[in-house]
Amino acid sequence: MGKRLFDIVVSALALALLSPLLLLIALAIRLDSAGPVFFRQQRIGRHGRPFRIHKFRTMVADAPERGPAVTVGRDPRITRIGHRLRDARLDELPQLIDVLKGDMSLVGPRPEVPRYVAHYPAALRERVLAVRPGITDPASLEHLDEAALLDAAADPEREYIEVILPKKLAAQAAYAARATLLSDFGVLLRTVRLLISR
User: Fold this and answer.
1) 5, CA 20 to 30 Å: which among 66, 96, 105, 174?
2) Pair type for strands 105-107 and 134-136
3) Which pTM was predicted?
């Protein structure tokens, strides 16, 4: 209950304080390329329940038809403003809406698309999906160079499924087993420092 109340208060306050920035980003996206401001995609949430995540659109509108599900390095499908948003992680800010709705938490395992959740080992799947997915978590902070690593791989999607995903799942399961409100606050502080440094 304390975690959910914390999520509601912080996400509502953040949306209010960041509203001018969110509007500027939305305007920049509309001026930069054709298509919607938001990118919405089905992800798997707590207890395996699907939901649609909100992100600022950073790719061309028909990106899913023009390449793989994983984003590799300086992917040519990424728009000019999209590169800047991704580098600063600002494309994730609309997920504050998902936190307010209850689909996500501020801190928790990053939610995956169904095709990658299908590769979760049974034991880890149960542990990772036992908690609400989050905007940030220790595993995602440890894999900030993921796109660059995939860019160097001969088969990016195979590299993600066989090498990166297992490491992230192990870290996420460990987080889910020991997470507290205090540890979540620490992860949020690390994330904010990272955003500021970028």
Assistant:
1) 174
2) parallel
3) 0.89
Instruction: Give the burial class of 151: count Cβ atoms within 10 A of its Cβ; 0-12 exposed, 13-18 middle, 19 or more buried.
Output: middle
Q: Encoding tokens for residue 27?
A: 């305007």
Residue with token string 């919405």: 40
- Distance of alpha carbon 190 from alpha carbon 169, whole angstroms: 20
Helix ranges (H only) for 33-118 are 80-87, 95-101, 114-117
Q: Between helices 2-32 and 80-87, what is the axis angle to 10°?
A: 150
Helix (H) or strand (E) segment spanning residue 106:
strand 105-107
Longest dimension (CA), the chain: 46
Contact 57, 37 (CB under 8 A): yes
> Residue 74 corresponds to which tokens in the numbers above?
């300086």
73-77, Cβ contacts within 8 angstroms, sequence gap of 24 or more: 73/147, 73/148, 73/150, 73/151, 73/152, 74/151, 75/147
Residue predicted with more confidence, 149 or 55: 55
